[in-house]
Amino acid sequence: MLAVMCLLLALAGGDRPRARDAGIEIGELPPGPKNAITDVAGVAVGHATLIRGDNIRTGVTAVLPHKGNLFREKVRGAVFVGNGFGKLAGSTQVNELGEIETPLLLTSTLNVPRVADALIDYMLSLPGNEEVRSINPLVGETNDGRLNDIRGRHSGRDQVFAAIRSAGTGAVEEGCVGAGTGTIAFGYKGGIGTSSRRAGEYMVGVLVQSNFGGSLTIAGVPVGRELRNEQRKAAVDGSIMMIVATDAPVDHLNLKRMAARTMMGLARTGAAGSNGSGDYAIAFTTDRAGCKLLANDAMSPLFLAVIEATEEAIINSLFRATSMTANGHTVEALPIGRTVEILKRRGATARH
User: Fold this and answer.
1) Measured between alpha carbons, how far is 229 from 350 in angstroms, rounded to an integer?
2) Pure H helices in the chain
3) Which of 32, 48, 251, 278 could lock 159 by a disulfide, CB 3.0 to 4.6 Å apart?
């Protein structure tokens, strides 16, 4: 009871905690020190957030496997498609060659071509790329058209360069930032979320752009059903982008298998997987030695790490997001105090 009272006081002061800070411990594996994708050494995340006037709520999020020249120092990668109602530029070459050669950028649906064009500009401008004649920009999206003037296609070169250049390896800003500025999940304000897990000697981190529907489930508790009885009907449509990073020495095939496990973490949150949901995962490893790749039999702990980190990253995106009014609509943030009360009553919070 004391923990819940402290949480309610914090919320009254305007603070929105991450799930684990509110006593919600998802899964069995331990998180990394930052509980973020940046727990994988060298991975950096940056945002460019656009909030202008009454109808622009959008942006760009950049995930860098490392801060060097990715075209010259490519990383092994893979893409998995859960439901292909979306626009993931560059995916076919990644799966054909098993390599990623640019930062991974997230944005809104109609901005993918503009962001990809700007990402090409950025890569061509790097020292050492003066003679490059082919770049495979990797750009994903979800549709933020309810809260954002999506037809205006407001994110472009300035936002792409800002997101990449601001990328850091520390704590990751979550909620209504970057590509998550105008997104909605389970009928509540969604956004950017991240989490990590230690799987033996290896680290796995996940970052999500949540913008999908279903009936919210947290740590196995049907929270959305109880909240819906009080407030609203379930929202079923939308999309999600999930990015998985690891330092484990795995090949393209097992990266694709890791990417596939994000769908299990997504399902744990109560996602509907609707016809109009673009559900995509991109996985990469920062390991560049590749001398002794993990065997298939060694992959199970990494699979579990992906599942748990994906689930918690999605919940963090909801916990950290704030209510937003724009484009003629208001989308409320998840009511954390009420959510924690439901979880505590169901025995799904840590004992304090």
Assistant:
1) 25
2) 2-12, 91-97, 112-124, 157-165, 223-230, 252-268, 300-320, 336-345
3) 48
Which region among 200-214, 216-230, 319-333 has the lowest average model confidence (pLDDT)?
A: 216-230
Q: In what order do the strands lie in the sheet with 104-108?
A: 44-52, 56-64, 104-108, 138-142
- Cα 334–chain centre separation: 17
- Among 80, 130, 121, residue whose Cα is nearest residue 102: 121
**Is 279 known to be catalytic?**
yes
- Paired residues of 52 in beta bridges: 56
pTM reported for the whole predicted model: 0.94
Measure the CA–CA gap between 150 and 152, rounded to whole angstroms: 5
277 is catalytic: yes
> Which residue segments constitute the domains of the chain, with CATH numbers given?
27-335 (3.60.70.12)
Sign, CA dihedral 209-50-188-4, equals: positive
Distances (CA, A) of 208 to 3, 110, 295, 306, 309: 28, 19, 28, 12, 10
From 39, 239, 247, 317, the catalytic residue: 239
Active-site hit among 91, 210, 215, 277 = 277
Q: Give catalytic status of residue 300 as yes or no.
A: no
Residues 140 and 105 sit within 8 Å (Cβ to Cβ): yes
The one catalytic residue among 215, 279, 287, 317: 279
pLDDT digits (tens, 9 = 90+) for 85-122: 999 999 999 999 999 999 999 999 999 999 999 999 99
Name the residue type at position 286.
T
